[in-house]
Amino acid sequence: MAQATRKKPAVTEIDAPADARTAAQSHFRTLRLGTPFQPRIDALARTNDWYNWAGYRAPHSLWDEELEYFAIRSQTALFDISPMTKYRIEGPDAEAFLDRITLRDVSKLKPGRVHYTAWCDDDGFVLDDGTLFRLSSTRFRLCSQERHLPWLLDSAIGFDVSVEEETEAVAGLALQGPTSFAVLRDAGFAGVERLKIFDLAEFPQDGGMVTISRTGFTGDLGYEMFVPAEKALSLWDRLMTAGETRGIRAIGYTALNRARLEAGLIVANVDFTTAEHAIRADRLRMPDEIGLGFMIDLEKGNFNGRRAILEARTKRKLRHVLIGLEIEGNIPAEQAIVYYKKSQEVGLVSAAMWSPMAKRNVAIASLKRPFGDTMVEDLWVEIYAMRELQYQRLMKRAKVVPRPFIKLDRRTANPPADF
What we know:
Blueprint: H1 18-25, H2 38-44, E1 49-53, E2 56-61, H3 65-74, E3 76-80, E4 85-90, H4 94-101, E5 113-120, E6 126-134, E7 139-144, H5 149-155, E8 162-165, E9 170-176, H6 180-186, E10 200-205, E11 208-213, E12 222-228, H7 232-242, E13 248-250, H8 253-262, H9 306-314, E14 320-327, E15 337-340, E16 344-355, E17 360-368, E18 379-386, E19 391-401
Parallel strand pairs: 3-13
Antiparallel strand pairs: 1-2, 3-9, 4-7, 4-8, 5-6, 6-7, 9-12, 10-11, 11-12, 14-17, 14-19, 15-16, 15-18, 16-17, 18-19
């Protein structure tokens, strides 16, 4: 049956040593948690540009957000993904349980493989998206943007499966860029060249094991690594030493966000509002409305939201579409309103940038149907550009284009290239 790991009861203030009481009473002084890699990240931080990622202190940038972006595209970038929510799901019914709550057919996910998936509430609205790692026939790791433990435990009733959050216990790193494979090879991870896109395997690390998957959020050649928190610093040092001649650089989220946008990838509560966070009913989105319809497997058994999703498709109730845009000029259309014929408001840009790789001004936007779906002509975006201490309103023509905005052959090359 579903289980959650229970912590030992906390000692009372009377029983606690003086130093423990002092630490407990001073908890407010720690405004954000540190990840297992925090000592190394703090040592490299030059900009002191931090943000809150799920309660952790994470960097927008470490030294230069522009150069950090180019580290992804021309060398190797190291990004701390430890704050990403991680769940260990295991037991005889783990596959059946995950098949019941997620959109994709989990029986097709073989041990040693990863797939991108999403899950919905009973009304077919997306609760979150994330990656599902199949570590063995009965053991999985589910990674997501938001926390879902109560929902997962409620959904697990009747299944012989255990669900445990392991966010704090497992540290994570993303190693992304053209020289990422060479860094791993030079670091001594023998056999890593055999990993194809969405493969995973375990490798020795400091007396333990590290799980390495050929995955990432940049659209580039890259890997993600998961290791027990106590082995985190030795893994960081191993990679930085091996990557010194390959131009390895630690980066913050701003650079990663630019790379994911070029790759056409979406972020929960940025490009769409998750069902648990939406306050207004018209902000809810079904998978087909945010470009995740390809995940839906109606041939498998029942899953959360199946009936509602099928009804929306057959009765044409889908109201929105998420699209890629190419916009004239070179001023990013961040948070710009999208218009039809310069007058009718039809949507909003959620992410935008001038892409150095694509040499285009690109954006991701959510539009009302049929705009961006069947009606794709005569679309405009409204941009406000600051020029000499005064905003200037610019109306720029936009056209619907496919995502991703760039496609790099090295991302899927087998074996990976040695740059």
